[in-house]
Write a structure and sequence with these properties.
Largest sheet: 3 strands, parallel
CATH class of the largest domain: Alpha Beta
CATH architecture of the largest domain: 3-Layer(aba) Sandwich
Radius of gyration: 16 Å
Number of domains: 2
Mean pLDDT: 77
Low-confidence stretches: none
Helix content: 25-40%
Order of helices and strands: EHEHEEHE
Structural class: alpha/beta
Number of helices: 3
Shape: globular
Number of strands: 5
CATH superfamily of the largest domain: HUPs
């Protein structure tokens, strides 16, 4: 059982510019609610049987860089928001990805969604604004 967490505005960080934009948008929400902004980067669970320690360290370093970049962007707003950072192992059961509005007709997912498809053994749900695909 997980410990209860204090309320926060949570933004998933994946290293993309879209994630940084989401964090910047969320700053005003966190400030208006007087709660922290939590930047979360999810990684593979530690101790997975096929996890190479060097690969695990590389994944962690990638997460740290992505979160640091988003953190810096939020700090540059100079708004009075408390920023929390979390890099956590995620036992993912379902990935929900938004459909791209641009690109080729057959290109439903952006780079993050495609990476999720290639690197997970769970179900992936693709949705757009009006229907599930």
């Amino acid at each position: 059982m997980r410990a209860a967490r204090s309320p926060s505005v949570v933004v998933g960080i994946d290293g993309s510019q879209a994630a940084v934009q989401a964090a910047l948008w969320a700053v005003d929400e966190a400030v208006s609610r007087d709660i922290p902004l939590r930047l979360v980067y999810a990684i593979e669970p530690y101790g997975a049987p096929d996890t190479n320690p060097q690969h695990a360290a590389q994944i962690l370093a990638t997460g740290e860089l992505a979160v640091r970049y988003a953190f810096s962007a939020v700090e540059l707003t100079e708004k009075p928001v408390k920023i929390e950072v979390e890099i956590l192992p995620a036992d993912i059961q379902l990935v929900v990805a938004g459909r791209r509005d641009q690109g080729e007709v057959g290109e439903l997912l952006g780079p993050t969604g495609q990476a999720a498809l290639q690197n997970t053994d769970c179900s992936v749900l693709v949705c757009d604004r009006q229907r599930l695909l």
